[in-house]
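HUMAN: Mind sharing a backbone?

ASSISTANT:
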Amino acid sequence: MRSADEQQYVEYVTARLPELRRLAGSLCKDAHRADDVVQAAITKLYVHWHKATNADNLDAYVRMIVVRTFLNERRLGWSRVRLTDQPIDFPASTGREVETRLVVAAALDRIPPRTRAVLVLRFLYDLPVRDVAGTLGCSENAVKGQTARGLTLLRRLLGDRLDIEPELRKEQSR
């Protein structure tokens, strides 16, 4: 890679790293695994930087790399290895919002990775169906179906623990 291209790559990654870590963290639910996903994704980005700079939307292109890296990583057997049998210590709840976030995060962790990616991109990143389909490399109907199945599964997992049904119904109708 030419030094000018490399400088451009370094500037881009430096500026976007917090957002990429946030996306990977939302998908992985584990900061260490999220860092691994981001590292693999930015390595792929480095290798394909010339192609990436020709993309219509560089941010969407990089987001697609992160999501696909996460999904590919989940297919490997080592991703299910746990190094401890102790539950993860979550910070103490200081209010309803924190409790809600923790309960929803735990429920999302039980949803299949591709469905979780759809829900995170649709509702956390507020991307339209078209953009999610482009990121995941599937049809808009597939995204809509995954969204419906994911929300149904979330409702079943959450049960009566949270009063978020009106919010989910509103989000699903988008």
Summary: The mean pLDDT is 82. The chain has two domains: 1-80, 94-174. Residues 30 and 84 are 13 Å apart (CA to CA).
